[in-house]
Amino acid sequence: MRFPFDIDRSREFDVVGFGTNAVDFLIEVPEYPAFNSKIELTDYAQAAGGEVATTMAGLQRLGLRTTYVGAFGDDPSGAFGLRSLSDEGVDVEHARVVKGARTQIAFIVIDSRNGERTVIWKRDKNLAFSVEDAPTHIVSGASLLHVTPHDTKAALAMAQTAKRSGTVVSIDVDKAFPGIEDLLSQVDLLIASSEFPSRLLGIDDHRKALPEMAQRFGCRVCGVTLGERGSLLFAGGVFIESAGYAVPGGCRDTTGAGDAFRVGLVYGLLNNSGIEDAARYANAVAALKCRAIGARTALPNEKELKQFLSNNTKL
Question: Which helix (H) or strand (E) holds 154?
Fold first, then answer.
């Protein structure tokens, strides 16, 4: 099945990303610690993360042209996070450094038995974008706008400009922020966490929730990520179910796996793949990401992705 979008690949950027970045402090432990206990860690690392920033880095690594719009503090973490994007080749001309603000951070505890993680995070309110701050003028220069809803009104302004410009709008969402319904009404490609439909609609059954979201908001492709089970997408009245892939060498860390899924899906969309093939790319990128600790550490390049798909079978 083809994606129901007209994509203009002649624009300056393939993707504009508007939303979150973070610096992650990752701690691997033999097992998740009990309350009021002590445990010796196995490994630790500092790594760049954040949903949209990670997605832009992953798409750039696959050969697409990306630009990131987001805010960093003027602290060492901010310098680290901004450099991590520019080192990947992501355009950061419209990223902001906010004087006196602290860059978003996350402390992430990873259970080495299965790679599952617990995230403890904090975002400085001074990093928020207002509608006036949002650089809406850059959206018409991209094939696709990818957003998170943390600064919902600013994201809505970006999305409305995108719709007027013929730019496809994609969203990464896991929480029902105030004003989310207005933003979703501007979205073409909605990929959510498995819990989001229940949080938004009170519907636990994905096969009921996805058509309801498509009908209510007009999103032409709706989907959920399902961890190692893969994904479920809904488009044109049809469900597309795609299984996950085994992680080479075993799963080290699931941090950023959802972001990685969106990397593969958008890559497939912008390379004129069908929805089924794009879902395969998405699940493959997510599996490859889980090879190492950190949201971006093991994101593949294009050669690695294609080699993995040619050599591996699904779960």
Answer: helix 152-165
